[in-house]
Amino acid sequence: MGDLRSYLLVAVMAAGLTWCLTPLVRALAIRISAVDRPGGRKMHAIATPTLGGLALFFGFVGGLGLSSLLFPRLFVSSEAAGIAIGAALMVGIGIIDDLKGLSAPAKLAGQVLAASVMTLAGVQVLFFWLPSFGPLQEGVISLAPELGVPITVLLVIVTVNAVNLVDGLDGLAAGLVGIGALAYFIYSYRTGASGLIAQDSPAPLLSALLFGVCVGFLPHNFNPARIFMGDTGSMLLGTLLAGATITGIGRTTQPQAGDQFALLIPVAIPILVLALPFLDTLFAVGRRVRSGTGVMTADKNHLHYRLLEIGHSHRKAVLILYAWSALLAGSVVALSFTGPRRVLPFFLVVVASGVFGLLTPRWRRRAVTGPR
Predict the structure, then answer these.
(1) Are 213 and 239 in contact (CB under 8 A)?
(2) Domain extents for the chain?
(3) Which of 185, 339, 191 is nearest to 273 (CA)?
(4) What pLDDT is stored for residue 233 in this prediction?
(5) pTM (global) more than 0.85
(6) Closest to 111 (Cα-Cα) out of 301, 296, 298, 297
């Protein structure tokens, strides 16, 4: 799996490259008029350069290059190259969308193409582990290519669009994905030694790279943002998160007994780590189906918009969502170290923090205006 210092070096490399390249990408975006102007459902008040995802991508590529020297065993298979190719395709689609605009069907078709190329390179869900099926080996279901390929493509597309939908406030998507990547790195690095994740899995490496690029981009993207990542960045982050998931969980055929409670299905951990974006996506789809609008139609009813409506400032809304995600992710990681009973206090803190964060502006209003 590699030593911790090597992973830290890779993450620092990715963060440093992303931080240094973002101002250059910003200057390029201004030069070619790749600027996101305010209006409609957009929350920013001034025109802001976009295409920040290019800095994220080059930071990832630079970190991946260093990784090939530090972790040569992980590059024996084609998985790392497949994820890099899929990420490059997603970035290309995002650039076109940020500059020219793509229809929802065209964007979805491009995402399917990029995800399919990843599967052709060997990035594919191979097993489902269902520990409730009695003996461990009987709980492992091997997926044939005709089933594994569409499941893999679906997982990539769902993750990409979950990150894309949550990218509505300055620094929100990069922060949430960074928190998720850090939690997933801790989880995959720790459980890798127990056999839950294969020794030659690039999951910890991808998580470290993903965390690094998010940290390097956030100083430029946090409110007030000097540059947006655009679809170029959100689709890239979703692709890398999905790649880490697929190459990690869902590959082992011999899980350890002590880890049975940690997973119900191979994607349980990343879903919980990014619970807010995934839940927000599900609510958005249901809301748009009920209203008869297109599933890909944008609106201002996402959770982060609602936090603004009830009185939170832009920064405070983002920090509240950071806190929720960190507590959820911490609970999941703690679950893999201890057990369900000891993790219960974490979930209680999550609920209490959520209630407090939501109701604080209303309590303040009542204190000022008095009871009605």
Answers:
(1) no
(2) 4-369
(3) 185
(4) 95
(5) no
(6) 296
